[in-house]
Amino acid sequence: HAKNGGRNACRVFKCGMNELIEKRRILEADLEIALQRGEFELYLQPRVDAASASIIGYEGLLRWFHPKRGMISPGDFIPVAEASGKIIKLGEWVLAEACRLLQQVDGRISVNVSSLQFRHSDFVTNLAELLQRTGADPRRLELEITESVLIDDDKRAVQILNDLKEMGLDIALDDFGTGYSSLSYLSRYPFDTIKIDRSFVSNLGLAENAQVIVRTIIDLGAGLGMKIVAEGVEHIEEALFLAQSGCHELQGYLLGKPLKVDEVAREVDPAIATRLRNMPRRLPEF
Ligand code: C2E
Ligand code: MG
Ligand code: MG
Ligand code: MG
Questions:
Q1: Rg for the chain (alpha carbons), in Å?
Q2: Whole-prediction pTM value?
Q3: Ligand 1 pocket test: which of 44, 47, 61 has the largest number of ligand atoms within 8 Å of its C-beta?
Q4: Do residues 67 and 53 touch, judged by C-beta distance below 8 A?
Q5: Cα 85 vs. chain centroid, distance in angstroms?
């Protein structure tokens, strides 16, 4: 308790830290065998065209079904996998699984690529080889990266992005608007897609400036020829506002939860689809 003075608080804090470190150490050891045991699953979440309300693809989201601890979210194990370097193998598995799942769904699949994986010297070569081996169509694959990939070694990042685009893949900038995202990124890097972070979407009904920010991101990205996707759409009002504002794609629990391939939605709830299709569009600013 902090009340008991600095020394106790410090001890409690240290104990908490040790527990955290211990938990991470166990997770890290388990990660090693989890891949061999097939404990991972790539869930899919629908990405929906805002105008037609049809599902045009899916985002792959990793889940770990731990034999003792049940389902673990990527937020809990991705940082561990990154810190231990295991993200390289895990990321390769994710890409291979996405290629396999492309045979079971229509449309495209996007996958998240961590910055360590992206910068790994064999990333582009391995990916090219995977595509060749599986015969997957690169135009049906999109890679989602965050700005953390871009912060240093700008030239190398541009080189990798260009190589990937030359192979036919699309690149999305994920979680746009969080962190340090600079507007200059949008002209400096060849993104096809911008994903508006869900924090902006969930603020739409609460703060009026969130509406201004979201519309500005849409106009900016669309004006630069990019596809704009909104993440974390949970309420019909959010979906309607985004559609009306010219956002191209919607993703979120309202339209479909992340689920395994045989359970994931193949179409949007008709009541929601009808409301989306009937929504008048605002004239674009550009
Ligand atoms: P992300 O790529 O931004 O993915 C979106 C996250 O929002 C996912 O969390 C998704 O389940 C969640 N989400 C989707 N719709 C809604 C909604 O309507 N409301 C709310 N509250 N949340 C929603 P998830 O699956 O826990 O993944 C978290 C993050 O972990 C991802 O954020 C991504 O950065 C990372 N991640 C997931 N899978 C992978 C992977 O295969 N490789 C790497 N490197 N990272 C991954
Ligand atoms: Mg993502
Ligand atoms: Mg995302
Ligand atoms: Mg995101």
A1: 20
A2: 0.92
A3: 61
A4: no
A5: 20
Pairwise CA distance, residues 118 & 143, whole Å: 10
Q: Within its chain, how far is the Cα of 14 from the centroid?
A: 33
Instruction: Give the distance (Å) from ligand 1 centre to CA of residue 15.
Output: 30
**Tokens (6 digits) for 265:** 């939605």
The token pair that represents 140 in the structure block:
């049906």
Tens place of pLDDT for every residue, the chain, 286 residues? 444 444 455 455 566 778 888 888 888 889 989 999 999 999 999 999 999 999 999 999 999 999 999 999 999 999 999 999 999 999 999 999 999 999 999 999 999 999 999 999 999 999 999 999 999 999 999 999 998 888 766 888 999 999 999 999 999 999 998 877 778 888 888 899 999 999 999 999 888 899 999 999 999 999 999 999 999 999 999 999 999 999 999 999 999 999 999 999 999 999 999 999 998 887 655 5
d(CA 31, CA 66): 9
Q: Which of 109, 79, 116 is nearest to 94 (CA)?
A: 109
Asked if residues 75 and 114 have their Cβ atoms less than 8 Å apart, the reply is no
Residues having CB within 6 Å of any atom of ligand 1:
45, 61-62, 73-75, 78, 91, 94, 111-114, 144, 174-175, 198, 231-234, 252-253, 258
